[in-house]
Amino acid sequence: HRAQDSLAQAGQDYEKSVTASVGRLAQEIKTAKDIDSLKINVLEHIRALRDGIRTRRAQERELLSQTRSELENVRQTLTATRRQMLAVEKESEKYSQAALTDTLTKVWNKRALSQRLHELFAETRDKPLSLIFFDIDRFKQINDTYGHQAGDRALRAIAEQASKSLRQKDTLYRYAGDEFVIVLEETDINNAIEVAERVRKAAEGIKFTYRGQQEMTITVSMGVSQAKDKDTPEELLERADQALYQAKEAGRNRVMAG
What we know:
Elements: H1 2-31, H2 35-99, H3 110-122, E1 129-136, H4 139-146, H5 148-165, E2 170-176, E3 179-185, H6 189-204, E4 207-208, E5 216-217, E6 220-226, H7 233-249, E7 255-257
Parallel strand pairs: 6-7
Antiparallel strand pairs: 1-3, 1-6, 2-3, 4-5
């Protein structure tokens, strides 16, 4: 803006100078007594105009250079600002991701589950939505017998195996403690039961020892439910939790539908 203001002011000054010079030349033509003196005066005015034009061009070049410099500064500032914004966005995304991820198992956490379910229930659904609620059988016994580090290892193992057993649109969440939830979009309860059975069988294949002690195996109990028309996220979770309780009562290591 400074360069533009200077250029505009220089243009106004130049226009005034030329107008004044032409006016003086016209006056001298009127009052000239002979042709020789008129020629001399005209030549002087022409030289003055030529010098003015040269000065004006020099000013324009200088102001153009300033404008280019200012534009380059603006461009560099915008580039730097854009980079800073991208860096801030990446940091924000990283922290948002961390806030929604379970630190132990690296799957989504309960907060992420709540957020996703409320998003899904806010949408108009024309396809079924199902949910699997499961936990590790006798998990407290693992902690009490082998220690909490062994329990953590069991949680990581089941999260890994469950994730491998899911389809592309299925999402695993750690709900609390040894409890996990799988959200199955565009899935009815029968297909959800099939997914639950895959996860249950994958859990049976987990075997590991901890600090040289006897080999440990893991089983899981699973409850499955499908969303109804007027359900809330809490009601869908509650029915799956009740089905999980029924699986426990029926002997564990099985899938029950609610």
